[in-house]
Amino acid sequence: MAHVQQQWKTAMTLYAAIDLHSNNGALSVIDDHDHVVFERRLPNDQERVLQALAPYLATLKALAIESTYSWYWLVDVLLHAGAVVRLVNAAAIPRYAGLKHGNDETDARDLAHLLRTRPPTSPVSLG
């Protein structure tokens, strides 16, 4: 598995998204062909989120987070880790409304796909 992860680090651009809720989030990491590289539900714990993302941060082009009421802590953690973060208002994206499946993992995967195919123009930055 480490050899496969090393191939991703050198050969592919990765995109990620987190469908964030009050006490957990579904993380999906996809490659530039929409293949799922990593997917897992994680507790809202900065150590666990960073540990899950650590193998992918070097080749992660950007990470989308659905802009719910609880995103502030996660954005701070990810920015300090060096990730390019994009907030997404899913309700304002008509195409996403048609993709929503009601499953957190597929919602995160769909957000990562939209990040790959139609990236927002402005990243979130440290103030």
Describe it for me?
By secondary structure, the chain is of the alpha/beta class. The protein has a single domain (2-117), classed as Nucleotidyltransferase, domain 5, CATH 3.30.420.40. The chain is built from 5 helices and 5 strands. The protein has helices spanning 2-11, 46-53, 72-80, 94-99, 104-117, and strands at 14-20, 24-31, 36-43, 60-66, 85-88. A 5-stranded mixed beta sheet has the order 3-2-1-4-5, sandwiched between helices.
Q: What overall geometry do the principal axes of the alpha carbons give?
A: globular
Helical content class? 25-40%
Helix/strand/pairing class, anyone?
alpha/beta
Number of separate strands: 5
**Name of the CATH class:** Alpha Beta
| Strand neighbour order, sheet with most strands | 3-2-1-4-5
CATH second-level architecture: 2-Layer Sandwich
Question: Main β-sheet, in a few words?
Answer: 5 strands, mixed
SSE order in H/E notation? Answer: HEEEHEHEHH
For CATH, the homologous superfamily is named as ATPase, nucleotide binding domain
> How large is the share of residues in beta strands?
25-35%
Task: Enter the CATH topology name.
Answer: Nucleotidyltransferase, domain 5
First-to-last CA distance:
38 Å
Unreliable residue runs: 1-8
Helix run count: 5
Taking all Cα atoms into account, the compactness measure Rg is 13 Å
Tell me the count of domains: 1
Output mean pLDDT.
82
